[in-house]
Amino acid sequence: MDRNTIFPRSIRYLLAVAEHHSFTRAAEALYVSQPTLSQQIKQLEDLLDVQLLDRSGRSVRLTAAGEVYLHHARRALVELDAAKRAIHELHDLSRGSIRLGMTPITDYLATTLLEQFNARYPGITVSTLEMPQDSMKDALSEDIVDMGIAFSSTLSTEESSEEIDSHILFTETLNLIVGNGHPLAGEKRPLSKHVLEQEPLVLFNTDYALRRHIDLYCLEHGIKPPIAIEATSLSVIIEIVRLGRLATILPAPIACAQHGLHSIALLPELPHHTISLICRKGSHKSPACQAFSEMAAEWTVARCRTKPTNHRFRPCPLADVCAHNDSNCDCAENPEPEDEKNPD
């Protein structure tokens, strides 16, 4: 029996006596004195108010009550050993779990990160919960999720410093997205902001941070876009736009990863949005969460290395999906220098 097992001393002593049928031999095996061992077992019997050992013969035997008690004690010992192994497995990352809050947009933009994490740590289960940006902070504080991938720019400085730890992953520019059957699908140069007043749009509803970015842009530039449909599902928005009549506003990499979509830049440029990994400040981070944070940092560095420095288009974070084989993907087009942008 492991002398380091986390188990009440009196029960370990009883197990040893039952195994050796002798107080003397049990004391020798445990490296304790016989009076100490006898005293501990007597205290256990007094606590249970029952005799556990029959001491009347030449060898010590368990009583019927002792047999029943040790049956359950051995089962408890097995569970304690299993718990010890489980803790070691958590720390060597062969098992574990992460609850990750995501918005519909970050679901798409961080898919390669999730896939790469699973490839490195297949024993760790990642559960994603899709929710609006405003719900994510509450989900963190109520321990519904362990971490979130969110629009960090929508978090106030006070929230970010006092309640939320935020680590930037990447930044993208929003573009006008149309289906291949849309009249604007052939446009390769940026269009004026006023195109938003002429094209009916399908957008997220106002519960979503992306929509608030768009509304702020329109307000600042005096634009009143015709919003035909409001939705809560990115898949629904994409399918409607793919049909060809309505347009939307999304990060360009999403169009890159989808067949049948075309991305068009606007002037002035639509707002940048920053995607960040967030967690509750001061909360305990499991080994699995720490590993995810470290891999997210690696993924960000690798992604930044692929970014071009001489043109306005950003590389697609889902390039392993797109692979630049779609002629409608902006990543496949020749970049347009900054000084050749169309005037407003």
Characterize this entry briefly:
The protein is α/β, with parallel strands linked by helices and 344 residues long.
What topology emerges from the helices and strands here?
Layout: H1 9-20, H2 23-30, H3 34-48, E1 53-54, E2 61-62, H4 64-91, E3 96-102, H5 104-109, H6 111-120, E4 124-130, H7 133-141, E5 147-151, H8 157-162, E6 164-179, E7 191-192, E8 201-204, H9 209-220, E9 227-231, H10 234-242, E10 248-251, H11 252-257, E11 261-264, E12 266-267, E13 272-280, H12 287-305, H13 319-322
Parallel strand pairs: 3-4, 3-5, 7-12, 8-9
Antiparallel strand pairs: 1-2, 5-13, 6-10, 6-11, 6-13
Helix pairs in contact: 1-2, 1-3, 2-3
Radius of gyration: 32 Å
Q: How many strands in all?
A: 13
Q: Give the class-level CATH name of the largest domain.
A: Alpha Beta
N-to-C terminal Cα separation, in Å?
81 Å
